[in-house]
Structure formats: structure tokens, C-alpha cells
DNA sequence: AAAACGGGGGC
DNA sequence: GCCCCAGTTTT
């Protein structure tokens, strides 16, 4: 990164605090303390808005916040619990599949290495890295659509491939920033650096922006 | 009626 | 690398 990464991080941090909403943060923090919850809520979040995901997760985890309890539920029950998130059939089957896999292979615990996480069905690099960062508090670079879009707009990368963005960040971003990077950028991506019609005129990060791919992402 | 919400996997 | 997947909520 050519620019002052420390300054950028501080800006992101202060912006993040502006976007915090107590109720959402409370649920999110509850999920964060449990790697299994992080894993499952990430699957629920597929093609689903964040508030809906959190509400569905909260309902599901109040019934079962570990693989053993999850396997006591039928697919119908899981479907009903996560219903508003959409794609509930596919998701409920996957949730129970993964629960079974974790019980059979890891005594019901979520593995804490990238390689082992990637062996789980339905888990790719984004999900695996998020489980490491949020579930285990291990430094990892998690590139989701927000991180990927903003890094492209800033000119750090110029690629459609999130894996490439991940590799560049691993190389250029100091490890001490890995834990919070995804969280801050997701918040910024949702509130300011949005996919369509981003709020560039009031953006605090414009000094860092290469101003490419602004109009529309995707 | 149309758009928004995203990541994994198959080829 | 490109395309497919498939359902809700919001506008």
C-alpha cells in the first residue's frame, strides 16, 4: 500500500463507531463468541440482508447453538427458524450436514485451521477466514464483497477475483490490522462505499480512493 | 413489478 | 474465469 495505512485504519475505526447500532451489535457480539455460530450464521447470510440474518441466527441459536443440539432438530424445524432469510431448504440441509460432519470428525467442535475449515461442505475462503477472525479471534484476512469492492476502488487491486485481493492484503496489510479490517470495511461498505450510488461527496476516505469502479459494482 | 441481499461450486 | 444457484424483503 502506498498510502498511510495507519491513518486509513484510524479513519475506518472512527467511522465504524458512527454506524454501530446497539441492538445489532449485541446480537453480533453474541455470535462472535461461538465459532459454530459464526460458521452457521455466515451460511444463513447468503443472499440475505444483515438484519434478517441476525434475527434468523438469533432464533436458530436460541434453540441450538452447537452441532449436537442442532442435530436434534428436523430440517423442517430449522427451515421454520431461519425462514425469512430465504433459500431455507438448501440452507437447512447444509446446516444439518455440517453439524453431522463436525460431530463425526471433530467431536462437535469447529476446527481452527484454514485447511480443515475448507474441507467442510459449503465453506470457502471467505467463510473459513471469517470463522478464524470472528470465531477464534485469530488474525486472518477475510475478503467479502465489501472488502473486495473497496480495495478495488482504492486501487489496491484491480481484479474480479477475491482470492487475489486476499493475497495482496496478506502481503500489504500489517497483521495487527487483520482482526478488525473486515468488520470496519463491511460497515463502511454498507453505509458509505455502497455498491450502487456510494456517498462519495461526504466520504472521509476520498484521499485514499483511486476513484475507479465507482458508478456501479457488478 | 423490480431490485436488493452473496458466496460456493461446477465446468 | 464465467455461469449457475433460487427465495425473501423492500421499494
TrEMBL record:
Molecular function GO labels: 4 iron, 4 sulfur cluster binding; class I DNA-(apurinic or apyrimidinic site) endonuclease activity; DNA binding; metal ion binding; oxidized pyrimidine nucleobase lesion DNA N-glycosylase activity
SMART domains (alphabetical): ENDO3c
An example Gene Ontology biological process: base-excision repair, AP site formation
Catalytic activity: 2'-deoxyribonucleotide-(2'-deoxyribose 5'-phosphate)-2'-deoxyribonucleotide-DNA = a 3'-end 2'-deoxyribonucleotide-(2,3-dehydro-2,3-deoxyribose 5'-phosphate)-DNA + a 5'-end 5'-phospho-2'-deoxyribonucleoside-DNA + H(+)
Homology family: Belongs to the Nth/MutY family.
Keywords, in A-Z order: 4Fe-4S, DNA damage, DNA repair, DNA-binding, Glycosidase, Hydrolase, Iron, Iron-sulfur, Lyase, Metal-binding
SUPFAM superfamilies (alphabetical): DNA-glycosylase
Binding residues annotated for [4Fe-4S] cluster, in chain numbering: 193, 200, 203, 209
Cofactor binding notes: Binds 1 [4Fe-4S] cluster.
Role summary: DNA repair enzyme that has both DNA N-glycosylase activity and AP-lyase activity. The DNA N-glycosylase activity releases various damaged pyrimidines from DNA by cleaving the N-glycosidic bond, leaving an AP (apurinic/apyrimidinic) site. The AP-lyase activity cleaves the phosphodiester bond 3' to the AP site by a beta-elimination, leaving a 3'-terminal unsaturated sugar and a product with a terminal 5'-phosphate.
Protein name as annotated: Endonuclease III
Top class in the EC scheme: lyase
Matching InterPro entries: DNA_glycosylase, Endouclease-III_FeS-bd_BS, HhH-GPD_domain, HhH_base_excis_C, HhH_motif, Nth
Organism of this sequence: Calditerrivibrio nitroreducens (strain DSM 19672 / NBRC 101217 / Yu37-1)
EC number: 4.2.99.18
Cofactor: [4Fe-4S] cluster
Domain HhH-GPD: 44-191
Amino acid at each position: 500500500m502506498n498510502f498511510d495505512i495507519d491513518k486509513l485504519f484510524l479513519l475506518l475505526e472512527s467511522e465504524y463507531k458512527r454506524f454501530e447500532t446497539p441492538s445489532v451489535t449485541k446480537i453480533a457480539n453474541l455470535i462472535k463468541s461461538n465459532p459454530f455460530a459464526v460458521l452457521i450464521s455466515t451460511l444463513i447470510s447468503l443472499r440475505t440482508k444483515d438484519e434478517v440474518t441476525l434475527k434468523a441466527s438469533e432464533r436458530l441459536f436460541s434453540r441450538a447453538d452447537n452441532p449436537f443440539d442442532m442435530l436434534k432438530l428436523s430440517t423442517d424445524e430449522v427451515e421454520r427458524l431461519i425462514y425469512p432469510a430465504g433459500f431455507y431448504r438448501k440452507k437447512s440441509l447444509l446446516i444439518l450436514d455440517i453439524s453431522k460432519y463436525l460431530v463425526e470428525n471433530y467431536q462437535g467442535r469447529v476446527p481452527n485451521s484454514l485447511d480443515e475449515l475448507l474441507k467442510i461442505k459449503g465453506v470457502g475462503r471467505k467463510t473459513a477466514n471469517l470463522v478464524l477472525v470472528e470465531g477464534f479471534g485469530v488474525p486472518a484476512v477475510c475478503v467479502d464483497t465489501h472488502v473486495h469492492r473497496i480495495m478495488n476502488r482504492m486501487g489496491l487491486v484491480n481484479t474480479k477475483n477475491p482470492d487475489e485481493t486476499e493475497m495482496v492484503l496478506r502481503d500489504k496489510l500489517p497483521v495487527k490490522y487483520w482482526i478488525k479490517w473486515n468488520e470496519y470495511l463491511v460497515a463502511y461498505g454498507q453505509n458509505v462505499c455502497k455498491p450502487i450510488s456510494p456517498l462519495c461527496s461526504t466520504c472521509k476516505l476520498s484521499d485514499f480512493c483511486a476513484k475507479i469502479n465507482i458508478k456501479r459494482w457488478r
